[in-house]
Amino acid sequence: MDTWIWSVRLIKTRSQATAACRAGHVKVNGDRVKPAHAVRPGDEVRLRHEGRDRVVIVTRIVRKRVGAPVAAECLVDNSPPPPPRELLVAVGRRDRGAGRPTKRERRELDRLRGSGGPDRPPRG
């Protein structure tokens, strides 16, 4: 499974493909699979990678990494379209060299994110 996902260029590296299988982000015909799972033509592969769901149907088996035109022939992509960039949540970044946030800044960040605060149960 991990070799096929990597070979058809769904994931950039084989180690990332293996990690995705182990983490349960890869399903074949609705079942979570291990990296060594055998793939057959006609299988539906669901992959969650980089915040995006990919749904592909296996049409051909390849054992080594192939070029993009050949990889496109090995699968039928039924994935939903990616969300537009405008809808992606912007992650707040600190200016370079600004150092760690102060306690006051950290509390403000926690309030914005909705974590922490007075509603949070005590630890311990």
UniProtKB/TrEMBL annotation:
Q: Which family does it belong to?
A: Belongs to the HSP15 family.
Which Pfam families is this protein grouped with?
S4
Kindly give the InterPro entries that the UniProt entry links to this protein.
Answer: HSP15 (IPR025708), S4_RNA-bd (IPR002942), S4_RNA-bd_sf (IPR036986)
| GO BP, sorted A to Z | cellular response to heat
Protein name (record): Ribosome-associated heat shock protein Hsp15
The ranges of region (Disordered) come to 75-124
Which branch of life, at top level? Bacteria
| Keyword RNA-binding (UniProt) | yes
Q: Which UniProt keywords apply?
A: DNA-binding, RNA-binding, Stress response
- Gene Ontology terms for molecular function: DNA binding; ribosomal large subunit binding; single-stranded RNA binding
RNA-binding S4 domain residues are 1-61
